[in-house]
């Protein structure tokens, strides 16, 4: 189990981590999700021993990890840009961690060769063992970097934006492959991503970070369906945000009252979040909001309509099924199926 | 695209080579460059060899076999070996510090490394006279302890080290900065020690840069005149390096001997040039492999 408590790391005046607490159970596949600058990579590097916190604690299975260097933590680290050793073959890259072990515990050449072969088989790239990194594609480099990290039999596997530098198709394949690999070897793994879809698809648990703090920790369903904060709601899934005012148990958008229950939200200025696909479209006057369709685009399985809300200057985008006929100029009623109210930002 | 085609309608489509200048201008520019190089580089170099062999091969060999010449060759090789060795170590440390760490005064350190390039070599020599000379800061103390720095090997070596210390560091800093430290971080997280990381990861990645720096450093160390001239004392058969000997012989109207020694330095230059071209090719390939 990895336990992080109250980690603080500052770069000059910028707080990369601002009091982070986190527990990761054995065998988990955890995603650190957040925009750039949220501190997720810093957290990962501190766990790996490549960076040191200003204050706070880090322990692996109850043992203080901060007193150990990166090489003693048995942590496999996969870098965003792979960081393969460019002057070594694929085979030697994977063998590196085994060759630099202290002589007392170093395996003999035959066992090293067998182990490397096993790892290359695991990442299905045995046939590339004599190539150099520059001769590989991005996806292949990524898998070799993973094999190299696994060679030292790490207790924890850390991946920094593992799919960040790959094209969309390879990325999708590798995601599924990583999931099944984790299923196979079940080593505790943490990966950093700014791509919410990636986090929700691959991880068992997602940690959403912003500005050096953890906003929410939960399963993919929890963070998607029950976002704890306005930030999480806005960051995960595509949301419509309306500035509203909460009055005695009803909501007001500009001068107009909305027929939506305030659900016990605090009085005063607030923000109403609705997922784009959580809006029921009906005839004009049928829902809480009324608007005029401005433009409709088809996006794969859905159509996305730009709708100007009547009585205020707000234009929102709503996803509707493709069989719902929408034409520019139509007046329609909009009823959120689900929504959340968060207090307004100061 | 449309513009280009409209301006050049007469030439079909294959000619769209925008680098093309009129033939005449091209020819004039190339001829000028060749003439210039011939007058200022090729002719002088040819003259060195022509003069050296003016009285036949045996005179040439005799000039080199002269005890003073042999002593100068030995001293030059020794000084170059020590200075290149020291500057290799220093250059590696400096480049490592500058490229892999951020610290206060980093810009200052980089400027300091470049200092010998901007200071006249004569001044560099004089500095050592001021420090170690009979009237200098440490001169009397050294004299009392019978340590000879000036007009001896230590002084010549110090002056040479000073003048040549930017070469290795300068060759390595951009290379190491461009490579970043991710490979080192990877090695360390895989359990490699600091030394293992240096010898197995860092050094192989920069080896062509190191050789490049050593090559230029060596060429300058063997060819240095100004700084060495100030501290050497020109003791015949003892503290004359090759460049100093060339001047002395020339001033004594021993032209053949003088040019024979000069031809050694000229050959060093030619070898350096070829080696530099080869190394630069390797460096380019190394950079591309990293992308």
Topology of helices and strands:
The complex is a heterodimer of chains A (346) and B (291).
Chain A (H helix, E strand, L loop, with lengths): L1 E10 L2 E11 L4 E5 L6 H9 L6 E6 L2 E2 L10 E4 L11 H10 L9 H14 L15 H13 L5 E5 L7 H18 L2 E6 L2 H7 L2 E6 L2 E6 L1 H6 L4 H6 L3 E9 L2 E4 L2 E6 L6 E8 L3 E5 L5 E11 L2 E8 L5 E7 L9 E6 L3 E4 L3
Parallel strand pairs in A: 3-8, 3-9, 6-7, 7-8
Antiparallel strand pairs in A: 1-2, 1-4, 4-5, 9-10, 11-12, 11-14, 12-13, 14-20, 15-19, 16-17, 16-19, 17-18
Helix pairs in contact in A: 2-3, 2-4, 3-4
Chain B lengths: L1 H6 L15 H30 L3 H10 L1 H34 L5 H13 L2 H12 L6 H6 L8 H12 L1 H14 L2 H8 L4 H30 L2 H7 L9 H10 L3 H36 L1
How would you describe this protein?
- The complex is a heterodimer of chains A (346) and B (291).
- Chain A is an alpha+beta fold and 346 residues long.
- Chain A has helices at residues 40-48, 90-99, 109-122, 138-150, 168-185, 196-202, 220-225, 230-235, and strands at residues 2-11, 14-24, 29-33, 55-60, 63-64, 75-78, 156-160, 188-193, 205-210, 213-218, 239-247, 250-253, 256-261, 268-275, 279-283, 289-299, 302-309, 315-321, 331-336, 340-343.
- Chain A has a six-stranded mixed β-sheet with strand order 6-7-8-3-9-10, sandwiched between helices. In chain A, strands 13-12-11-14-20 form a five-stranded antiparallel β-sheet. Chain A has a five-stranded antiparallel β-sheet with strand order 15-19-16-17-18, with no helix packed on it.
- In chain A, helix 2 packs across helix 3, helix 2 packs parallel to helix 4 (138-150) and helix 3 packs across helix 4.
- The longest helix of chain A has 18 residues, at 168-185.
- The two termini of chain A are 38 Å apart.
- The model of chain A has no long low-confidence stretch (mean pLDDT 89).
- The two termini of chain B are 32 Å apart.
- In chain B, helix 3 packs across helix 14, helix 8 packs across helix 11 (194-223) and helix 9 (166-179) runs antiparallel to helix 11 (194-223).
- Chain B contains 14 helices and no strands.
- Helix content of chain B is 78%, strand content 0%.
- Chain B has 291 residues and is mainly alpha-helical.
- Chain B folds into two domains: 1-52, no CATH class; 56-290, MetI-like fold, CATH 1.10.3720.10.
- The chains are: A alpha+beta (346), B mainly alpha (291).
- The A-B interface holds A 48-50, 69-73, 75-77, 79, 81, 83-87, 96-97, 100-101, 132-134, 148-149, 151-152 and B 182-183, 185-193, 196, 200-201, 204-205, 286, 288-291.
